[in-house]
Amino acid sequence: MNKDQARELLKSPDADERLTGARYFAGNASASDERVLSECLRREEVSWTRNALQQGLRRASGEIEKDIELPTSTNATYEDWREEIKASAIEETTKLLLHEIEPIIGTMRFHAERELPTESCETLRQIDRLDRLLEAIATLSQAAAAPRIVSFDLHELIDLRCEEEAVPAVVIGFAGRQPMVIESDPGLISIALVNGLKNAIEATVDPQITGSKSQPITVTWGDSDRDIWISIADRGAGFLPGIERVWDIGSTTKKDHFGMGLSLARRAMRSLGGDVKLAPREDGGVRFEMRWPNSDSAN
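Now predict its structure.
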């Protein structure tokens, strides 16, 4: 891609094409591009495209020289870079949102606890719901953050997260290498793993889905030369109507849910360069699979 092609993309009615053009200038803008980028920024309404345009303007003005660079690896693509820009925009936006809203919720709780009867107080219940929403937004910010790579035992992490989420009615089986020391971000893996577990457990303990008898959940993990994976298999109802929208934030049929779980899982995996998939099981239920690149394959 050259600058003329990138400028044409910035004029496109398609948001993805505008993002591709903006991302090019985020890594290649010069002083001569400042006017064009400023005009595009005034018109642009999509937050992550605005973020890329702002990066381009900072580069054009000389404020930054090596903030975002074009991929040099033959395996890197503009799709990879687009995910990076999206993640950066999500992290920045959620942090700003939390900064502005958290003090307001705290003040609301302070006054509600003093001015309203605490028994059966619907106002306090709704404030609690807002607190849970803020926690979900904070998790979204974490899921969009740049990975912090450390060495750890994946089996130990899985065991700990399953112990924290376990409920008495559900049996969780395990199969995988023990120990399995890898280099990755345990925080991002935990976000995806916990949300996959919660979905599997809810499908398993819901009597309308499984009847009076709960079914076991199986967690397996492993690696190859290319990637590392964790699979969570349940025997719930399987794919229900609306499955195509499960990745959308706010898409849920469950009471008192925000519909962010699978979106958080996918965002966390994409921050690691991986992804999450759902697949139906032949004998009923759903398989949740999270997969990300094996850092050893780059060595």
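The radius of gyration is 22 Å.
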